[in-house]
Amino acid sequence: MRRTFFLWAFLRSIDPAARVLMATFTLLGVVALWWILRPPTQAWYQALFFWRPTLLYWALALSLVIPPWLRWGYPVKYILGPHLHLAEKEWLWLCRIFALAYLFLGSVNLAFAYRTSSGDWIDFKDACMMNLLFLILLRINFVWLGILKNVVMLIYGVYKQVTLRLQGKVP
Question: Distance between CA 60 and CA 12 in Å, rounded?
Answer without folding.
Answer: 23
